[in-house]
Amino acid sequence: MASVTQDDERGVNWLVFASTMLGLAGIMSVIDGIVALSRSKFYAPYATYVFSDLRTWGWIMIVVGVLLVVAAMGVVAGSQFGRWFGIGAAVLSALAQFSAMQAYPGWTMLIFAVDVLVIYALAAYGGKPSRA
User: Would you say 93 and 25 are in contact if contact means Cβ atoms under 8 Å apart?
Assistant: First the structure.
């Protein structure tokens, strides 16, 4: 019986991690998008983007960031839709980050790793009902 309790606790911890990282990645994506729209010198000046230019990528990052924040709220609420929406939002975030890898490769790889961990957490532990 003790192992079931430990598994439940581990699952809850993974879900807290997933919701926190979804929210944090969402906020940072919105900030990245705003910085890109303001044509800041923060990004590489001659980078090539998959989708048009820096401004287009900025709008994409703002939309992805908002989706990630909404997904984090869904995971916190504990709904199955929130779980699947969170997995989809994390996949979308990973793809959006790879579209600008040339501009900021370190950040892209960091957020991609977080997205993979979030997908794992939601896929492995998101379906278990939590005990109060």
Answer: yes
